[in-house]
């Protein structure tokens, strides 16, 4: 049986699938050619990440397809309900990238509180002529330890962020429509651990009381953070979005940054991907990455092997 990994798959994933008797095709097929390629090559499993869209047209055009797999968490590029109605299995890997995304959140937080994003832009330009000026400009850093981190969306990734925050000595508060409470186990290198129980609060309370805010919610209609939410926030709040573009109103974000309400923002995702607004890209108070939350070697290995295990279980063991 053939598997088309159209947006790529790790070597460990390929090895696991081949060991399970599958032929893995990693040719990148253009979006408009995907259905034709699947039918011509009798592909049974289509694996995607965020680039390839699997809408009704592909599902209807490919009666031989048995599984659609998403390497990662969000499945907004797949018509999931329709595919399942048509009898297809739709799978993803919700646990595999949590740690990687959480570490990127803290990369943005550390960057923001020590102005690394701006310093890294200006040091090559002025470091030899205005060293003391830059030193003064970036002299008002703040520590994360002892501050309150508000986590909006308290699923696997939100809880992975909570573990790191607790390890740093931060207070963690969280909001989630579907999670009332969670026990966060913080593991240490020597086998010791602590358990911390966190009871979720209302969105407004989390927004009001946080020194830093990070979002871990799926794509949805409407903004989670809009003008009204920015007005509720503390002065000099830092905000990070490594979830989905479109959950923060970017126009309102820029206003809040320019007014000094928000100290900095860290963005891995954008309303208009893959062509983010130039005002966002050029803003001196925004730390930027190009949607790389799950892009670590470890996460990609876990994604590949987890997809392989699910595929083998569905098609070989039934």
Automatic annotation (TrEMBL):
Can the keyword Oxidoreductase be found in this entry's annotation?
A: yes
Tell me which residues make up the D-isomer specific 2-hydroxyacid dehydrogenase NAD-binding domain.
107-293
Q: What positions does the domain D-isomer specific 2-hydroxyacid dehydrogenase catalytic occupy? A: 6-317
Q: Which CDD domains match?
A: PGDH_2
One Pfam family of this chain: 2-Hacid_dh
Residue ranges that the Swiss-Prot or TrEMBL entry lists as coiled coil = none
State the InterPro entries in the record. Answer: D-iso_2-hydroxyacid_DH_PdxB (IPR050418), D-isomer_2_OHA_DH_cat_dom (IPR006139), D-isomer_DH_NAD-bd (IPR006140), NAD(P)-bd_dom_sf (IPR036291)
User: How far does the signal peptide extend, from start to end residue?
Assistant: none
Ordered alphabetically, the record's keywords are: NAD, Oxidoreductase
Q: Into which family does the record put it?
A: Belongs to the D-isomer specific 2-hydroxyacid dehydrogenase family.
Per its UniProt record, what PANTHER family does this chain match? D-ISOMER SPECIFIC 2-HYDROXYACID DEHYDROGENASE CATALYTIC DOMAIN-CONTAINING PROTEIN-RELATED, D-ISOMER SPECIFIC 2-HYDROXYACID DEHYDROGENASE FAMILY PROTEIN (AFU_ORTHOLOGUE AFUA_1G13630)
Its protein name is D-2-hydroxyacid dehydrogenase
């Amino acid at each position: 049986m053939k598997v088309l990994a159209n947006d790529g798959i790790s070597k460990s994933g390929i090895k696991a699938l081949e060991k399970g008797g599958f032929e893995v095709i990693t040719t990148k097929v253009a979006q408009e050619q995907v259905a034709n390629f699947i039918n011509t090559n009798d592909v049974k499993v289509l694996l995607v990440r965020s680039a390839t869209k699997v809408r009704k047209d592909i599902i209807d055009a490919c009666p031989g397809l048995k599984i659609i797999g998403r390497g990662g968490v969000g499945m907004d590029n797949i018509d999931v309900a329709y595919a399942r109605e048509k009898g297809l299995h739709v799978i993803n890997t919700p646990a595999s990238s949590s740690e990687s995304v959480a570490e990127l959140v803290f990369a943005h937080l550390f960057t923001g509180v020590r102005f690394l994003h701006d310093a890294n832009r200006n040091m090559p330009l002025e470091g030899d002529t205005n060293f003391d000026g830059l030193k003064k400009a970036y002299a008002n850093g703040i520590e994360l330890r002892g501050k309150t981190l508000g986590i909006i969306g308290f699923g696997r990734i939100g809880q992975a962020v909570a573990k790191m925050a607790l390890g740093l000595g931060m207070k963690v508060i969280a909001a989630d429509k579907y999670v009332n409470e969670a026990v966060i186990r913080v593991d240490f290198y020597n086998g010791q651990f602590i358990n911390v129980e966190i009871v979720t609060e209302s969105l407004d309370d989390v927004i009001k009381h946080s020194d830093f805010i990070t979002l871990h919610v799926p794509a949805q209609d409407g903004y989670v953070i809009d003008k009204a939410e920015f007005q509720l926030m503390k002065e000099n709040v830092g905000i990070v979005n490594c979830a989905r573009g479109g959950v923060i109103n970017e126009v309102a974000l820029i206003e809040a940054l320019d007014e000094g309400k928000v100290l900095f923002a860290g963005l891995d995702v954008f309303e208009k991907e893959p062509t983010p607004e130039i005002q966002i890209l050029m803003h001196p108070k925004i730390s930027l990455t190009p949607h790389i939350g799950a892009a670590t070697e470890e996460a990609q290995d876990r994604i590949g092997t987890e997809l392989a295990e699910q595929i083998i279980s569905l098609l070989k063991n039934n």
